[in-house]
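User: Show me an example of a complex going from sequences to C-alpha cells.

Assistant: Sure. Here are the input components:
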Amino acid sequence: MSTEVKEQETETEAETEPAESPHQTRRMEQKRQRAAQRDLEEEAREEIDDAEETVEIKVFRFDPEVAGKEEPRFDTFHVPFFKGMTVLDALIYARDHYDSSLTFRHSCRQAICGSDALFVNGTQRLGCKTQIADLEDHLNSTIRIEPLPHAEVVKDLVVDMEHFYDQMEAVEPFFDADELPDGDLEEQRQDRENREKIKMSTRCIWCGACMSSCNIAAGDNEYLGPAAINKAYRFAMDEREGENRKQQRLNIIEQEHGVWRCQTQFSCTEVCPKDIPLTDHIQELKREAVKNNLKFW
Amino acid sequence: MYEHDVLVIGGGGAGLRAAIAAHEEGADVAIVTKLHPVRSHTGAAEGGINAALRDADSWEDHAYDTMKGSDFLGDAPAIETFAKNAPDEVINLEHWGMPFSREDDGRVSQRPFGGLSFPRTTYAGAETGHHMLHTMYEQVVKRGIEVYDEWYVSRLAVTDHDDPEDRVCHGCVAYDIKTGEIAGFKADGGVILATGGLGQAFDHTTNAVANTGDGPAMAYRAGVPVEDMEMIQFHPTTLPSTGVLISEGVRGEGGILYNDEGERLMFEYGYANNEGELASRDVVARAELTEVNEGRGIDDEYVHLDMRHLGEERILDRLENILHLAEDFEGVDGLEEPMPVKPGQHYAMGGIEVDENGETCINGLYAAGECACVSMHGANRLGGNALPELLVFGARAGYHAGGRDLGEAQIDTGPSAMSEEEDVDTPVSPGAVGVGDEDVAADGALVEPSEVIDHHVSAEEQRVTDLLEKDDGVNHAEVRADVQETMTENVNVFREEGNLKEALEDIRVARERYQDVYVRDPSRTFNTDLIHTIETRNVIDVAEAITLGALAREEFRGAHWRKEHQERKDDEWIKHTMLAWNDGNPKLYYKPVVLEGEDKTYEPKERSY
C-alpha cells in the first residue's frame, strides 16, 4: 500500500476514524520510513564491522528440489560473536541476516525440546546447549555444522526422525500397571530410592544424538538403539510397572536387534546432552534379561 | 482430504490430554501439530502442578487462592470446575507412571508456591512439564492415537455466516512441512485448538520460538472473540541474556532475592511484607523492575536470586535442573554464586474465549490450555496453575467433543454476551490491511462441510503460492523483530498511554510492511522460511490485540499496571476486555466477570501478600 493512498483514506474517514493530526501523520510517515530501512543484511554488515570478535560457521546445505542445492555443499557465514553465544544463536543469526532458506529444527532453545541435535565439529551436540566459546579455537578456525550422521537428510540440517521414533515406540514405551489403588485420590506408592534409580533415564529428550553416534546402529538398521533401550530401562526399573508388560518388554529388548548388540563403546553416553548413563543402563538390562531367563529356566 | 471425528491442533499438554479424553469417549481422534509432540513447550514447564490432594487442604481453598490471585478477574464457574477436578487429574498422571518427586512414605510430594495458602504444588524435580509431556505422549502411543506431526495448521475451515455465533467449524487446513502438501482435515465432532503460548510477540520471553499465538490468531480471524489479552504474565525470574526460565520452585524451596546493595528487597522496601519472595508473580516482577528503575539493580538490569543457603543436597534433590540451566545459559554456578534474574514475558492469561466445556461461540470449535481463556487466571496466573489447567480443561474439551454430556456451561460466550461497547481512542486504525486479509469471506454462501473445507484449502494454496512465487520483498524476520521490540519496549510490566499508542503505530507499520513479505526459499521441502512467515502474521494479530486491551483497561489489576491509573477500580472494571475481529475492523467490548460460585459469591478484597 502506498503512502499516498493511506493519507487519502485518513482524510476521507476523518469523521469516523480517530483523526490523525498533522503531527501524527508526520510521525507515522517517519515510522514507515524507519521500518522500511530496516534491512537485516545491512545490519549484519554494520554489526560485523563493530564486533570485537567474529566467528565463521560452515554449514551443510542440501535441498532435493532447489537448483544448486541438489548436490550437497557447504556455505560459510560470518557472524559477530557475543559472550554466551551458542551454535544455535549463530545459525539463527545467519538465517535471519543472510539466507532465510537456511533450515534447521529448533524451538525451546533451552535443551528440553530435543529438536536441534547437530554434528558440530565432528561431534553430536545440541546446538542450543553448545557454547561457541567452548569449541576449540573458535575465533580462529571455522566451526563445521552438519546434520546428524547415519540419518537421512531431508534438507540442510534437518534429518528424517521417523526411524528414531519407530525404534522408540517399538519398546512399548508406556506405563501399564497390573493393578491401581482403588481408593479415592489414591496414588501408587513409590520409594524415593526407586524414583532416584529411574531419574536419569526419564530425562531423555528424544534428540537422537546417541543413535547417531552409535556404530552398531549405523550398521544394523533394526537395532533398537540406546534411546529406545533406555526408555525400556525407565519402565523395567520402575517398581510401579506391571509384571505382564515388564515381561513383554524384556522379551522385545532381548531379541536379535536388542541389548545384546551393544558392544559397550560408550559413544552414546559421551554425546548424551542430558548426561544419561546410557551404556550402564543397557548393561543393567542385559543382566536383567539373564536373571529373567534363569527364572523361567 | 483427511477425516476424523475429532481433531486436536497442537501436541503439547492440553492437546495430548484432549486427545486421550476424546479417545476414551470412543472418538476417532487425530492430533495435528507443527512440532512432534515431545518437542512442545509444555516440556519446559518446571515448577509443578497445584492440586488439593490432602485432607488438610480443600478444593475450596485452592479455588479461593486462584480467584484472589486472578485479582478478581477470573470467572468462578471456571475456577471451581478447575479446583475440583485438578486432584483427579494429578492422580491420573501418577497412574500413567509420571515420575513425581516423593515423600519418605512414597506418596507424591507437594511444595509451597507463590500465592498458595497450602503447599499443594506437586512436582517432578524442576522438570515437571517434561515428565508430564512425555508421560502423556506415552499414553497417546499406547492408545494408538494418530499424530500428524510437523503439519502446520494455518487456517480453520469455518462457515461464512454473518454472525460468528451461527458459524460452524468443520475442520482445518494444514501444510505438511516435510513435503509441502496442503490438505483439508475434516472433523464432524469438533476441532480443539491447543496451540499454547504467544510469547513470540515479545523479544524477551521464556516461550519457545514456536509459541507464535497461532491458535488465538486463527480463532480471532475466524470470528471468535479474544478475551483479556492485555493480561500478560511477566515471570520474575528469567535469565537476563536468553529469557530462560528459573522456576518459582527456587523461591518455593527458600530462595531469596537481593538487590545491588545486598538487601532482601521484598521485605526491605515493603513490596510483600508477609509473603516476601513468594508473593504473586506480578508483585515480584514489579518489585524487581522498581529496584532497577530506582538504581538498585545490578548492572542496571537485574537482581540476584540466591539459593546457596539451601545446601547442595537439597538443591540437587529438588532443583538440579536449575543448576544446569544457570550454568548452560548464563554461565553461573548456582551452588557457588547467586543467579542473575529479571522479569520476562512468560504466559498469556487471556486468549480464545471459551466456556467451562472448552467451547467457543463457533459451533464445533474448542480451545484449551494457554491459547484459551476460560477464564480462570483472570489478571494474574498463580505459579503451578497452568499445568493443572491444561489437564482439566484439555480433558473437558476432549470429552465434550467426543460426545460426553458435561452439563450446561455457566459462562456465556460470543458477541451476544456483550454488556457494553468500548470506543477507545487509537492513533491508527487497527485490523485488516487491504483485500484478502481476512479468514472468513462473509458472503453467506458457504455452508456444506466439504465445500467449506475446499474453499479454505484453495485460499491457503493461493496464499502459499503467492508467497513462494514473489521474487522480492520484505523478509518476515525484519517485521517480526520490529513487533517484538516495540512490545517489549512499550507493552511491558509498566504501561503508559503514550507508549501503548506508540506500539499500535509500530504494529500498524508492521502490518503494512507485511503486505510485501516474500519467502526467499522457493522449495516445498521443509520450508521453515514459509512457516515462519505465516506465523509472523499471527504474531502481528496477537500483539495488536494485547496492546488494544492494554490501552482500553484504565486501571491497575493483577499483571496489568497503568501509569495513569494506579489503582484497581472495582466499580468500573470487574469485567472482561473482549476483542472481536469483526471481519477486519476490530471491535472492543466488555462482558461481566462471574463472581458467583456454586455455593458462594467471591467478594473482591485487596490483594496483599
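The lines above are the inputs; the final block is the predicted structure for all two components together. Residues 233-346 of chain B form a domain with the Flavocytochrome C3; Chain A, domain 1 fold (CATH 3.90.700.10).
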